[in-house]
What we know:
The structure is a single chain. Helix 5 (92-105) runs parallel beside helix 6 (122-129), helix 7 (142-157) packs parallel to helix 8 and helix 8 (174-192) crosses helix 12. Helix 7 links the parallel strand 6 and strand 7 (163-171). By secondary structure, the chain is of the alpha/beta class. It contains 12 helices and 8 strands. The radius of gyration is 17 Å and the shape is globular. It has helices at residues 12-25, 42-46, 54-58, 85-88, 92-105, 122-129, 142-157, 174-192, 206-213, 218-221, 226-238, 249-269, and strands at residues 2-4, 30-35, 69-70, 76-78, 111-116, 133-138, 163-171, 197-203.
Amino acid sequence: xxxxxxxxxxxxxxxxxxxxxxxxxxxxxxxxxxxxxxxxxxxxxxxxxxxxxxxxxxxxxxxxxxxxxxxxxxxxxxxxxxxxxxxxxxxxxxxxxxxxxxxxxxxxxxxxxxxxxxxxxxxxxxxxxxxxxxxxxxxxxxxxxxxxxxxxxxxxxxxxxxxxxxxxxxxxxxxxxxxxxxxxxxxxxxxxxxxxxxxxxxxxxxxxxxxxxxxxxxxxxxxxxxxxxxxxxxxxxxxxxxxxxxxxxxxxxxxxxxxxxxxxxxxxxx
Length: 270
């Protein structure tokens, strides 16, 4: 599951961390890989002191398996580097090597959550290409909406195989989230002949930032919050095994209606 965004500052890493924790709570062996290699901060938001970073792998001092760190609620963490220009500008061969090594780890986990960098760099698109599910995080901010469309456009042009799902963050109401989805999906349908899936929304909540400042996952600190429930529902959708839904796409649509109610019905009609 690759979590990505066009614009920075939309809560992408917060979503990635909390999706990973919710997947673990649902009984799945879960790994989160911080693929924002040069400006990594998953270790900050999870409050861990990592055993190592991708820099150790790049320098030939360790393998990805050897730098696995213990994160919150049984989640394993692979850390990137912070403030390391050489990681931010890794060559194509090294990025592909990391991707292959990550795929080798896959047999030990049920879910790997990849927190990509923001934007549409070649490295971001490569990591998106590894994913079965892509979670595109956007907010009602107009720049975020435009950049989210840009991510969908480049992902489609690059023929990434994963399903693209839109999660609208920092909304005041469910109606605001469906308006964002409709804006993006109208553009993608018109210009790309494609529509992403509506994954859901997260409410604007100061406690989300408070949890980040405390270096704890939001869902751990606030287990009964609305956003915790919504993150659990999103994790159930995108973190299930590919063959888990024996009934096929109609079952998936029914599950979405159960989770998102009228918002899904409205977006599906558009």
